[in-house]
Amino acid sequence: MSQPSHHYAQATLGCSTALPLALLDTSAPTDWTSLLLNHHEGAGEGPTFETQRTDDLSLTIDASGRPEVLEFIDGRWQSAMFQPGIVCLTPRGETARVRLRSPAASEAFRTIHVYLPGSLVDDVADEYRRIGQTSSNNRIIGGAYRDEVLARTGAALLGAHRSGAPDLYAASAATWMVTHLLSQQAGWRHLADDPRVATTIADRRLARVIEYMSDNLERHLTLDDFAREAGISVHHFGRRFRELTGMGPATYLTELRMERARRLLKTTDLPVADVALRSGYPRPSAFSTAFLRQTGVTPRRFRSPSGG
């Protein structure tokens, strides 16, 4: 049987130091070269950090706990609840600006990080490419996704590492994971996909306000808050915001809150009352009314397998 021929990048060894999390375990000192596996632990709310750029494909898998993952995308913070079955993917050569926070300061969470060699991605993509299909069709897109099988594979890798499995195990798992990712790309959507892109707003002050909105959705926010963040008068702020986004600040804020609510309903099993609170609605009844008006279905109906 041939030996594994792919090796993770040297720069990937520094990825663990970029994370404000305790490193519990790593495959780095072992004979595993077909992928790198790190196991981290954190608690409470950590600082904002930038992931390290590497030529390898990076997967982050929830091992325990339910932290909220906030990622700065298109000029604003977007969030998703991290829980079993959710996988965060960072493509080769890309970085992410991220913040992690658990529901309570004392509540710990653990994550499994798997780094898959870029050369393996290229080889599998070449094998996977169908006749007439261009290589660009095989691009793996970053984001947060629900994939129970991939998450279980990450947990199995951690168990195999702890039991002293050889690199052949890691190589086989790495090839399957990359093949699985390529096979799923056509149907996957990023949890934070949204046609509203803050970077299309030329006025940097308004882009800052949209970031402020997305970072404070659970709070009671007013037009005065937004104008103060932008550093302009309330009158000019409202008019300028509508000119550049096509909607008023209150409508835009509702859109952001409904976007978060939809993600929480689909990616977590939080009670509807908790989803309402995290989306900026202290009263569940008000949330249900707003959600029904926005989507045409109730929150419970939206969460059901056939609801959305």
Describe the structure.
- Helix content is 39%, strand content 19%.
- It is built from ten helices and ten strands.
- Residues 130-137 and 186-202 have low confidence and may be disordered.
- The chain has two domains: 10-187, Jelly Rolls (Sandwich), CATH 2.60.120; 198-303, Homeodomain-like (Arc Repressor Mutant, subunit A, Orthogonal Bundle).
- The chain starts with 21 loop residues before the first strand and ends in a 5-residue tail after the last helix.
- The radius of gyration is 21 Å and the shape is elongated.
- Strand 5 (68-73) and strand 6 form a beta hairpin.
- The strands form two sheets. Strands 1-2-9-4-7-10 form a six-stranded antiparallel β-sheet. Strands 3-8-5-6 form a four-stranded antiparallel β-sheet.
- The longest helix has 19 residues, at 249-267.
In short:
This protein has ten helices and ten strands. It has 308 residues and is of the alpha+beta class.
**What is the second-level CATH architecture of the largest domain?**
Sandwich
Major sheet characteristics:
6 strands, antiparallel
CA-atom Rg in angstroms: 21 Å
Task: Report the portion of residues in β strands.
Answer: 15-25%
Tally of domains: 2
Count of helical regions? 10
CATH homologous superfamily identity of the largest domain: Regulatory protein AraC
CATH class of the largest domain: Mainly Beta
